[in-house]
Amino acid sequence: MVDNNFLKANNAKHLWHPMAHPADSLTNYPKIITKAEGVYITDIDGHQLLDAIGGLWNVNLGFSCDEIKQAIAEQLDKLPYYSIFRGTSNEAVIELSYQLKEFFAPDGLSRSFFTSGGSDGVEIALRLARQYHKIRGDAGKVKFLSLKKGYHGTHMGGAAVNGNSHFRMQYEPMLPGCFHIAGPYLYRNPFGATDAKQLAELSVQALKDEIQFQGAETIAAMIMEPILGAGGVIPAHPRFMPMVSKICKEHNILLIADEVITAFGRAGAWSGSRLFGVQPDMMVTAKAITNGYFPFGAVMIADHLAEIFEQDKTGKATISSGYTYSGHPVGAAASLASLRVMQEKQIYKNAKIRGEQLYQGLLSLAKKYPLIGDVRGGYGLMCALELVSDQEKKTPIDKAILAKIHEAIYQAGVMVRISGANIILSPPLIVTKEDIEKILDALEIGLQSQ
User: Fold this and answer.
1) What phi, psi does 144 have (nearest 5°)?
2) Per-residue pLDDT tens for 427-437?
3) Domain 67-345 CATH assignment equals 3.60.110.10
4) Cis geometry, peptide bond prior to residue 238 (ω within 30 degrees of 0)
5) Domain 31-64+346-448, what fold?
6) pTM of the model
7) Among 148, 158, 378, which Cα is nearest to 256's?
8) What are the residues whose beta carbons fall under 8 Å from the beta carbon of 221, sequence distance 6 or more?
């Protein structure tokens, strides 16, 4: 067994961390997390923290969900792996597809295509969108639309529809035919809008203009998050997604809801699409589907798409996409257990209540600390603070200052996520009133440190 000093010394010497500069990891040692229980994690030095990140938006049921752990162990004993490529299947994945059909029935989704995670799911959804139009004889519908500040993973297709240049610049040229619409980012938007409803209408007008410019006959799909997550927790006016859906239907453009974050309760509803009264053509899910305990995801597909594929007689509907771990039996078993526990606990209800407590607490902090330029939230347990050095100019806070604030929050016993100038908060959906108070207290200590 290696000792702590070895782990600290070697962490970044032979390991490149995602979303980080290799040199930065060598000079700024990452926190080494060694164990977790409930909503708490413990680092290598024995420092215990409330995990206000929820793993990475995904540990909705916390770190001690024995039902999922037991399901994984039992499945490993029974069937640790087998492919579901053409000709074979497994019990767990068949049962899961049925349970997901029941769960997503209000969203109009009844078929599952299983993946290894969110980025994989986005790739599959984009491919299926193009294939759908080809089956129907609309082979020219190949382009994709998405929102600026939207996040859709890091595969080449997902990076191409990503609305944040940070995930694109070093990997260009991207997939051609991807175009971005100004999103519902009220704090910073190109229209100068100061009202959410007005901004939604202006963004929708920009969408209409882009469709007219590109030609609806060339556009396969629009992909969007109901609430933009990794881009900084950016909620739109409640009418925004329904308006986008209506426009897509009018032009035979598929709507792909990227709900890798928002599915399974995080936004205070079982799905973000359901929250806003939209039935998408496809929905990408992952993260909380196994509570983060196993890499797994599912692209959910609407009935009318399924019929086009299943009734095809030409062979064009053969799905030539998939992954070694698509429909992994252990992942399916974990998902079944996670789905059962989430529904038993009705965790979206607690997400709504505790999310409102967190959001109101952040608004109160904003009145006291000029460093807080914007507070975003209001939909379940996904909130963000955008920090600035100048309120009037909205100048993003210096990274060195933000790092000090982050460390002060950490020392106060809470783990938060830094993204750009944002402090992002996405704790497990089982947090208590006292947990939220602890998060708010730690944030205040961090803000007071400057």
Assistant:
1) -130, 140
2) 999 999 999 99
3) no
4) no
5) Aspartate Aminotransferase, domain 1 (3.90.1150)
6) 0.97
7) 158
8) 125, 126, 129, 144, 145, 253, 254, 255, 256, 281
